[in-house]
Amino acid sequence: MDAPVTQEALRDLDALIVVSSPWADGASAAAQTMEWLAEHGRTGLLRRSVVVLNDSDGHADKRTRAVLTRQFVDRGQKVVEVPFDPHLRPGGVIDVRREMARPRGADFSRSRPRSPNISRRGPTARGTESPPDQGVAVRSSRRRA
């Protein structure tokens, strides 16, 4: 997080999505990210961040997920739980259009109402408008000098 390129990227973000596994080790790493943001004066970005608990293999314990969710919520974080889906395996290519057509595809849009800085349409990384339903984009209202 202290690398110059990371610092530059953080300055340009309006929102941050931190993906975590629903186990203590993954959630610990996500919590460390949140703590780092707070300790380095990025409290505005921290308030606009969303934690995604992604059950990537279907073995997450419901009680553990509930405890982790509560811990993040108690710290003021927005939390989205993504249930196991074999199409969202680690390292796999995600076809957002196909996933949105499936009932579980609604999980992609759950975070949008909770964070106004996250939209399904908006500027891409290069500042051009993305086509409709192209996926999730983080909007940046800042202009670079």
Rg for CA atoms: 16 Å
Task: Please give the share of residues in helix.
Answer: 25-40%
Integer count of domains: 1
According to CATH, what is the class?
A: Alpha Beta
CATH architecture: 3-Layer(aba) Sandwich
Major sheet description: 3 strands, parallel
* Count, helices: 7
Strand order of the largest sheet: 1-2-3
Biased composition (Basic and acidic residues): 95-110
Protein name: Putative chromosome partitioning ATPase
Region (Disordered): 95-145
Organism: Mycobacterium xenopi 4042
Account of the 3D structure:
This protein is an alpha/beta fold and 145 residues long. The protein has a single domain, classed as Rossmann fold (3-Layer(aba) Sandwich). 39% of the residues lie in helices and 14% in strands. It has helices at residues 4-12, 24-39, 43-47, 62-74, 96-101, 106-109, 111-114; strands at 16-20, 49-54, 78-82, 118-119, 137-138. The strands form 2 sheets. It has a 3-stranded parallel sheet with strand order 1-2-3. A two-stranded antiparallel ribbon has the order 4-5. Strand 2, helix 4 and strand 3 (78-82) form a beta-alpha-beta unit. The longest helix is centred in the N-terminal third of the chain and has 16 residues, at 24-39.
Name the features.
Putative chromosome partitioning ATPase; 145 residues; Rossmann fold; two-stranded antiparallel ribbon; single chain; alpha/beta
Furnish the topology, listing elements before pairings.
Layout lengths: L3 H9 L3 E5 L3 H16 L3 H5 L1 E6 L7 H13 L3 E5 L13 H6 L4 H4 L1 H4 L3 E2 L17 E2 L7
Parallel strand pairs: 1-2, 2-3
Antiparallel strand pairs: 4-5
Protein name: Putative chromosome partitioning ATPase
